[in-house]
Amino acid sequence: MQRLGILDWQHNLSFRSINLLDGEPAHTLLSSLSFRSSSGSSHSKTRLCSNLRHADLNVTLQSLVRQCSEIQNAVHDNIEELLDEEDDLCPVECVREFKTDEEFSIILEKAKKAGSLVVVDFYRTACGSCKYIEQGFAKLCRGAGDEQAPVIFLKHNVIDEYDEQSEVAERLRIKTVPLFHFYKNGVLLEAFPTRDKERILAAILKYSAPASADV
């Protein structure tokens, strides 16, 4: 009984598998192989078809890997664009942080000349409520970012780099955080502790409305 040599079979399968990557139909692999003896041909064909399925699977996996890589790159680019758009709408850096009393005084003076409302978020790094309201406060900063904006958003860590109370917190006698101050024309209009973004927004609308009406 003559059987297809194993080396011949491997050669043909390898050759045809490469061609499949170029788009050759899978059935050409089966038709390219011949059996010199009809005896036991059904078993040989069964084994061949099994190997054919593995060959097709390998080709399919390689194709899927390429497609998944392309999709992943596209998704990554889209996510980057969405993040950029979100940053444009509400950049985190629009909430300016100051550290010294002198810096705070300079900002208040510039805001006074511009007629801007100044909102200050006094926080502590280890404060859970402070971290919670930080995100909401950042979203309220739209349109801000410099002293010429109608509303200026600031933040200040009441604990300095030496783990002591900052000079600003000491002068203002801040004991509770998160605490929000609202200044207009260099004067403190209101102060209250909260983690409620809507309450902060209500105060902003309250104190910025007269300036809008004058315009």
From TrEMBL:
Task: Enumerate the spans annotated as Thioredoxin domain.
Answer: 69-209
Q: Which InterPro entries does UniProt cross-reference here? A: Thioredoxin-like_sf, Thioredoxin_domain, TRL4_chloroplastic
State the organism of origin.
Nicotiana tabacum
From the Swiss-Prot or TrEMBL record, state where the protein is found: Plastid, Chloroplast
Q: Which domain of life is it from?
A: Eukaryota
Give the protein's biological function.
Answer: Probable thiol-disulfide oxidoreductase that may participate in various redox reactions.
Instruction: Assign the protein's first listed, main location to one coarse class.
Output: plastid
Its keywords, alphabetically, are: Chloroplast, Disulfide bond, Electron transport, Plastid, Redox-active center, Transit peptide, Transport
User: An example Gene Ontology cellular component term from the record?
Assistant: chloroplast
* Recorded family membership: Belongs to the thioredoxin family.
Name by which UniProt lists this protein: Thioredoxin-like 4, chloroplastic
Electron transport is among the record's keywords: yes
SUPFAM superfamilies in the record, alphabetically?
A: Thioredoxin-like
